[in-house]
Fold each of these.
Amino acid sequence: MTTRTLPQQTTSHPASQDRAALAPRITGMACRNCGLAQPLAIAYVCPACFGPLEVSYDYAVAAATFTKDAIAQRAPGIWRYLELLPVDAVPGRSLPVGSTPLLKAERLAPVLGVQRLLIKDDTRNPSLSFKDRAVAVAAERAVEFGVPALACASTGNLAGATAAAAAAVGLPAYVFIPADLEPAKVDHALAYGATVVPVMGTYDDVNRLCLEVADETGWGFVNINLRPFYAEGSKTLAYEIAEALGWRSPDVVVAPVASGAMFTRVARGFEELAELGLIERRPIRFVGGQAAGCAPVATAFELGSDVIEPVREPDTIVRSLAIGNPADGRYAVDLARSSGGSIEAIPDGATAAAIRDVARLEGIYPETAGGVTLGAVAAARRRGVIRDGDEVVALLTGNGLKTPDARTLGLAPGALEGGRAHPGEPGLAPVIRASLSAFEAWLEDGR
Ligand SMILES: Cc1ncc(COP(=O)(O)O)c(C=O)c1O
Ligand SMILES: [Zn+2]
C-alpha cells in the first residue's frame, strides 16, 4: 500500500506572524460578542466566549486614502476598496472579481409589485457567483499566511469559487460537498482542478467534518478558519451599490440568506461608508430570503425569537441556501428586525417562477438563490416592508447555468418538452431539414 502525503504547513504558524508586517489600517481581530481583541491569525472563535471573531480596522487611517476621488481613479474590481478589506496590498495574482452591473429591472418590477427595482447582477463573476468576492479575500489572506492548501465546505457555489481562486493563486484545493449536490456544481469545481470530496449527509454534516479536518491539516478553509476574512469580501457588494448610485444607499436591500454571512456584511459595508462619510447615513431596510424547505432564520423572524432552531433535514431545490444551522443566523434575524426589514420563506414553486420571469423579462438568468431573492421582494412588498416608491436593490448572487433543472419546476408536464414549440412560442422547435421549404412548412404548421 502506498501512503500519499497531504500538503502540510511549511511556514511558521500564522498566529506568530509579526504584527508589524500588517498594513496599519488593519488593527487585528475582535470578538463580535464580547469585544475581546485578538491578534490577526487563522482563527475564528473567541477564546473567552466562543463568539465569532471579526477583523478590526483603524478607520481614521483608512479614511486618509479612501476617498471618492481616489476610488474613481482605480481599476475595476473589489480591490478598489482595499482600505476596507483585510489584506495588506492589492494581490499580485487574483481573478477579476466584482464591479458587476447594477441594472434597472423595469419590466420585472411590476410583476413583483414594486415600482423601482435594481438588480445587482453577481451572476457574472469569474466562477459565476458572488462567492468569488469572499473567496478572493480569504485566498489572498491565506497566501499571506502561507497555508499549504485552500479548502471549503460548500453548498455548491463556494466549491467553484474556491477551486477557481486556488487555481489563480497556485494552491491545491480541497472542496467538501454534500454527496448529492447538483452535478453542474460538482463538475465546475472539478474543471478548475480541485480535489472534490463528496460527503454523505447534509451541508451541516459536511461543515462539522471540515471543522475537524481544518484542525488536523492546517489547510485554509475559506469559510471556517479563514471565515473572518472571507466574510469581509461580501462588503464589496455594498460599496459597489453605493458607488453605482452616486455614493448613496437605496431604501431596501434584498438578499439571500444561507449562513447569513453575506446578508450581515452587506449591512456592515453600508455602515462603514456612512462612518467614513462617503454616503449620508439613511435607514436601509434589509430583507432576507430563504427557501421554505430550509428556513431557520425566516422561522425565527416569524416567531419573534432570537433563537435559531436548526433544520435537520432541508427539503428544497435551493441547494445553495440549504444550511440548517446557520453560523450568522442570529445576527441576520437581528438585522432584519432592527432595520425594519424581514426574512421571507419562499416556496420552491415561486422560486422557479421568479427565475423564469427575470430571465424572460430582463435577460438575466440566476440560479435558485436568485429566485428566492426575487420571491422575497414580492413577499416583502405584500407584507408592507417595501412601500410605494421605494428604491429596492435585489442581489442575484449566482448563475442559472449551475441549476439548470430548477427553471422548469412547476410547469405543466410536457410544457417544455423538446420539439414541440410553435412559431412565436418559447421553447424548442422540432428539428427541421436545412431548407427554406422545411422552415416554411413549420411556420405553416403553427398557423
Ligand atoms: C448563490 C448564493 N447566494 C447566497 C448565498 C448565501 O450566502 P451566506 O452563506 O453568506 O448567507 C449562497 C451560499 O452558499 C449562495 O451560493
Ligand atoms: Zn468573546
Note: Residues 31, 33-34, 36, 46, 48-49, 51 surround zinc ion (ligand 2) (CB under 6 Å).
Amino acid sequence: MIDEIQPNYASYSIDELEDALRHVDSEAYPQRVQAIKQELQIKRAQHTAAKQANTEHSDNEQFFKCPSCLKSISFFSKAANSWGKTKTCPHCGAHFEVRMNYVALAIALVPLVFVHRLLFIPILVAMGLPGAIGMGVVTGTAMALSMRFKKPSQD
Ligand SMILES: [Zn+2]
C-alpha cells in the first residue's frame, strides 16, 4: 500500500500541530493523526524542558553566555573547552566557571530519550549499527544542554 507523502510535522510549531490535528481527516489519514500526536508529545516535552531551564536562570547563571558581558560563548569554543575549572571570556576577559545543572540534565534527557527511540535507533539499525551507540550521543547532547557558565564563586 502506498501512502501519500506526509507533511513534515517535525517543522511544525505546537500551535500548527494542534491546528493540523483539528483539521486532518482522521478517517482518510490515520497515520497522519498518529504522526501529529507523536510530534506534539515531543514538542510539548521540549517546551516544558526549555521553560524549566529558563526559570532556573539567574543573572549569575547563563546558558552559553558570558556571565559578565552576556555575549555568547560557543560550547565548542576554545574558551569553553580550555583546561581547568575557571575559563576566560574571549570577549571581555572576565573569568567564569562551567557547572553542570543536574536538574536541567534530567529534564533534557526525557525528550532526548524519546527522540532517541523514535529517530536514532531506526537510523542506527538501518546502518547496521547497534542502537546502543545512540544513547551516548543522547547523553552527550543532554550534558551539553545542561552546562551553565557562572561567575567564579570567590567573586
Ligand atoms: Zn565576557
Note: Residues 9-55 form one domain.
Amino acid sequence: MSHDPAPHDMRDTSDNGPRSGLGAGRRIDRDAGPGRLPVPATAEGRAGLAALLEDPGRALIAVDFDGTLAPIVPDPAQARALPAAVAALRSLTPLVGTMAVLTGRPALTAVEYGSLDQVPGIVVLGHYGRQRWHDGELVTPPPPEGLAVARERLPAVLADAAAPDGTWVEDKTDALAVHTRRAADPAAALERLRAPLLRLAAETGLRAEPGRLVIELRPPGADKGIALVELAGADGRSSVMFCGDDLGDRPAFSAVRQLRATGQPGLGVCSGSAEVAGLADEVDLVVDGPEGVAGLLGAIAAVLGR
Ligand SMILES: [Mg+2]
C-alpha cells in the first residue's frame, strides 16, 4: 500500500498566524479539517508521517488525553474526549499497528471519559505508563511508596503555604495533583505552592511535575518518554507518532527525537494552546487544540481507509 502525501506538500502554510504562547518556531496548521492531511513543518516530521502512511500496520500512534483528545475544562472530572476524536480513534485503530492513549490519569478514568471501551483494540496507558488497559483488562502495579505519606501531609503543607482559595487536590490514586486553575490568580497561586510541593516530593521520594496550572506529585521512573519507548518496542516500527499538549508530554516528544536519531521514523504533534509556551518548538506539527487533533487522526484514517 502506498499513500503519497505529496500534493499537500505544495500548500503554503506560512500565513498561519502565531498564537501567543506557542513560541516562534511553529505555526498552527489551521487547515487540518476533515480529510485534509496537514503537512509537518520539519523534514523529519514529513518523513515520519510518510513512513506511517506507507506501512501503517507496523506504526505506533500514541496520544495524550487532556488537552489533546479532550478540551481542558475547569473541573478535570468534567473532561470528555471530543466525539470527533472518539470517532477518529474508532476509524484509525484497526488500520495501524498500535493505537494508544498515554495519560497521567488512571487508565480507567481515561477509558470512561474518552469512551475508549467503544474503540476496539486501543491500548490505554495510565499513570504515565504504570498502568495498562487493553480489551477490558487492567494491569496495575501497587501504589508507589511515599504516596500515602504525601497524601496525609499534603493538607497541612497547603495550609502552611497559605494556598489561595480555589486550590484543590485531585487524588489520582498513583499521584496527587494540586490544581490552581480555580484560584483568583492561578499562576501566582501555583508559584506560591511550587517550593513547598517540591520539598514534600523530595521528602516522600516522589517527583513534583509541573503542568497546566497544576503541580503533580508522582512516583519517579514513570514518564511518557519511557512509556512511549516501551510501546515502540525493540523491533522496528515503521513510524512512531505522538500527540500531546503539555509539559508532561515533553519526555515523549524527546523520545520521538531520540528514536529518530537511531533511524526510527516518527513525528511529534502538539495540540496547540495559548496556555503552554515553548512546546511548539519541540514538535514537527502544531494543530489547533483537540479539534485539530481529531481532524488529524480522522484525516490519517481517511487516507489509510481509501
Ligand atoms: Mg495533556
Note: The CA atoms of residues 236 and 285 lie 23 Å apart.
